[in-house]
Amino acid sequence: MKIKISFLPLILGLFLGGCARQAYKDTRFLLDTVCEITVIDTNKTRAQEALETAFEEIKRIDRLCGYEKDSQVSQISANAGKRPVKVDPELFKLIEESIRISELTGGAFDITVGPLVSLWGFDKHNPALPPAGKIKRVLPLVNYKNIRMDSKNSSVFLLKPGMKLDLGGIAKKYTMRTVMKKLQGMGIKKAMVNLGGDIQVRGGALGKNPWKIGLQHPRKTDQLVTIFKYNDKTIITSGDYERYFFHNGVRYHHIFNPHTGYPTKGIISATVLTDGPILADALATAVFVLGEKKGLALIEKIPDTDLILITESKKGTKIILSRGLKNAKLEFSY
Ligand code: AMP
Ligand code: MG
């Protein structure tokens, strides 16, 4: 018996040496964006299965929240002003969460921006400046207070005909989390989920290295503003360079002020770094609308959550950090 035990570490050592950890990566176009998943594992089969499961999970959420006609979210919109629509408890919770963010941000974040997104053509990828009169006409349709939630029946009702939900500001971030949970459930300890630049990392990268995540320069697409190094973190960026067009030399992008119906101005990139719950993830979009002062004040109140803003005005460009990042030794090149 004793002999067996003394051999055990050697055998185990050989075993581990033979199955070094490796990175497995796959990239697919889903959720209307580039989804890239990396898992690091000793077992190739498990890693590949995990990647497959991850992409299935993304497709599943898309069927709930996506722009396709038969998604549950589209069903809610199609029945606006007519009748409540019964939805999966999961989607019900996500809409409830969205409403909470609306309340927290004084309506800066509002998933009823759908009519604006459509009017401006961002949902069909052919955006253009609409006539001011039309913007004015759809504005009364944008108000999260006109969503009726019935938890008993798990149903959602948009009170006014023409209202339309758009979960574009929260769906990717939510998916990132459910994908990471799936991976962890399959025994994957090290992973990076990158859904169109919204990123979550867990467990550190290969060896003892942290994951490295670059923050894209909002004006020079081939440059990084900084590189983050974290083992575990969620990093969400909203930028005016993601979806936009120019009209008479003015940039119009895809994040709207629900109170004016126009794209926001001032902030050109907002990055939320968090270990916290989903709520903080969706705040990058809200911060865009709230602006520098109110946006910073909001993030400072949320534990384990930080913010990097890049603003642009006639005076030039500024990088603004929340308090928690002041000593983070980040180097910026802009
Ligand atoms: P993100 O790039 O994550 O900030 O999300 C932007 C997307 O959220 C847009 O493409 C719209 O689908 C949606 N959106 C735009 N403006 C708002 C807003 N004020 N509140 C909530 N969602 C919004
Ligand atoms: Mg985004």
Molecular structure report:
The protein is an alpha+beta fold and 334 residues long. 33% of the residues lie in helices and 27% in strands. It contains 10 helices and 15 strands. It has an 8-stranded antiparallel β-sheet, covered by helices on one side. A 3-stranded antiparallel β-sheet has the order 3-5-4, covered by helices on one side. α2 runs antiparallel to α7 (171-185) and α9 packs antiparallel against α10 (292-300). The chain starts with a helix and ends in a 13-residue tail after the last strand. Bound molecules: adenosine monophosphate and magnesium ion (MG). Residues 109-111, 113, 117, 122, 166, 168-169, 238, 242, 254-256, 258, 284-285, 289 line the site of adenosine monophosphate.
Query: Residue ranges: pLDDT <50 for 5 or more in a row?
Result: 1-18
The average pLDDT value, as a whole number, equals 92
Q: Can you summarize the main beta sheet?
A: 8 strands, antiparallel
SSE arrangement, N to C: HEEHHEHHHEEHEEEEEEEEHHHEE
How much of the sequence lies in strands comes to 25-35%
Bound molecules: adenosine monophosphate, magnesium ion
- What gyration radius follows from the Cα positions, in whole Å? 22 Å
> What topology, given as strand order, has the largest sheet?
1-2-6-7-10-13-14-15
- Count the beta strands: 15
Helix residue percentage: 25-40%
Q: Pairing-aware structural class of the strands and helices? A: alpha+beta
Distance between the termini: 65 Å
Number of discrete helical segments: 10
General shape: globular
